[in-house]
Each structure stands twice: as structure tokens, then as C-alpha cells.
Amino acid sequence: MNQAFIVTKEHRRFTEFANAVRKEKTIGICHGAAGVGKTNSARRYANWDALEPYINAWGPRGDHDAKHYALANRSRTVFYTPEVLCRPKDLMHDIDHWQIKVGICADEHLRSLMPDGEVVRQNDVTRLVELLIIDEAERLTPTALELLRDRHDRTHLAMILIGMPGVDERFRHYPQLYSRLGFSHHYRALGREELLFVLDRHWKRLGRTLDPDDFTDAQAIAAIERITRGNFRLLERLFPQINRVLKINQLDTITDDVIEAAASILVIGN
Ligand SMILES: Nc1ncnc2c1ncn2[C@@H]1O[C@H](COP(=O)(O)OP(=O)(O)OP(=O)(O)O)[C@@H](O)[C@H]1O
Ligand SMILES: [Mg+2]
């Protein structure tokens, strides 16, 4: 499942959006359909695939510390996914925890840059964290939203709330939060050119070469475009099935029929 991250146009747009929210010290909303890649982009922005396990382990210091300190200092971001029935108090407690840990790492990096003897400790390392990204934001209760708004007012911590389409509408019901929203960002599915790029990789992985000028390949591409509408998760789920259909039927070529057969096995109700 964990294939290499592809730096898509949408990811670059997300990065620009996150940088803007951070610079303006405001609150931003990122919304988009299920499976388009919101979580992946946000985790990538926060270097979270590296920092989360490192912070969770938090063991005796070792050789790889400096690398993680530098990562934390570069992203200065906490990525957080609330639990389904999260209690507001636990939410704030967890956020504090991550903010302190990322802050300590960034602080360590900054201190490593200082000449010896000039060690100045930050009195509040949490201040080094500039952005908080909350995924699955529809899980936040009104109280949690109120606590986050209060945190934002007091510390000017920039925040991004990620959710499904319509999450921005939900926040309209909270005028105090809504009036503080700086940016709203729509995370879209892959465009045609990028879809071709991703498909090319999938084709290669199946040991084949994709040629959009070839009639059969063009039809296959059209079928995939229609079925997945450029949705990353659907693409990811479709390809193992395509592989299966090819194997079971002892076929060599990925045709639109193969794709239709593969799609019929999946429940695609996006
Ligand atoms: N940039 C990318 N490069 C490679 N694979 C990606 C990329 N973005 C997403 N994916 C793949 O697509 C799948 C869905 O992505 P992700 O979980 O980020 O979607 P999402 O928008 O957060 O969906 P949901 O709204 O359901 O949480 C992931 O399993 C991931 O493997
Ligand atoms: Mg997600």
C-alpha cells in the first residue's frame, strides 16, 4: 500500500496553502473528496512519517537525532488526527504533547547551530511550532472547536483543519471560528496529465509500458479515467484487481474490458 509519494500539482498547491496559513498566522480549511490525497499531503508537509515514530519512541539519544531535529525545525508543524469520539480535554492534552515534542526537537536543532558557550534556552519551546494541522476535522465537537479557537487567539498558532467537502459549511455554524478563517482550500483529484503519469508507473509495476497513442492503451486510460475520476485511493484499489483479472484469464494486455472486469469486483461508490 505504501507506495512512493508522488509530488503532484495538488500537493504543491497544498504546500503553498499551508505556507500562506502559517505566514498569516490564521486558520485555514482544506476540504476534498475521500481518497484524493489530503492526509498524505499534510503528513508529507509536516515530515510526519519520520517525526511521528521518532517522537513516539523518544528513547535514549542516538546518531539519527540530528536528522530528526533538522526535520522538525524545517516543518515546525504538528499533524494530529483526533479520535472518533475524542474528548476535548484529551484533544488539547495530545496537541500540547506533540507541540512540546516537536518544539524540543526544533530547539535542539537551533542550539546545535549556536557556537559553543552561547547556549540560550528557549523559555517556551512550544512557540517554535508554527502550524497545527488537524485531519478528520469533522470529528471535532463544538467544544473542541471552541478550545482550538481560544488557543489560536491566545497564541496565534496557525491551524489547518482538513475534512470532507462540506466541512467548511459546517463551520459556518460557529460564527466565532468562521470569522477567523483566513483561507479555504479545495483539494482536487488528479488532472489528466498527472493521471497519465501515475498510470505509467502502475503499468511499469505490472511489467508493461503505457503508450497513450496506442488505441488499446488509450481506451484503457479512458476507462480508468471514467471509473476513478483521478481519485488516488480508487486507483490504488483498482490495480491489484487488474493484476488479478490478467492472471486469472492469462492475459497480457490491459484492455478496457480488463479494467471493467476489475472495477466490477470493487465497490466504487465515490
Ligand atoms: N501524492 C501521493 N503519492 C502517492 N500516493 C498517494 C498520494 N496521495 C495519496 N496517495 C494514495 O492515495 C490514498 C488516499 O490518500 P489519502 O489517505 O491521503 O486521502 P484523503 O484525501 O486523506 O482521504 P480521506 O478523506 O478518506 O481521509 C493513500 O492510501 C495513498 O497511498
Ligand atoms: Mg484523510
Automatic annotation (TrEMBL):
Transmembrane segments: none annotated. Keywords: ATP-binding, Nucleotide-binding. It comes from the Bacteria. Residues 23-171 form the ORC1/DEAH AAA+ ATPase domain. GO terms for molecular function: ATP binding; ATP hydrolysis activity. This is ATP-binding protein. The lineage of its organism: Bacteria, Bacillati, Actinomycetota, Actinomycetes, Micrococcales.
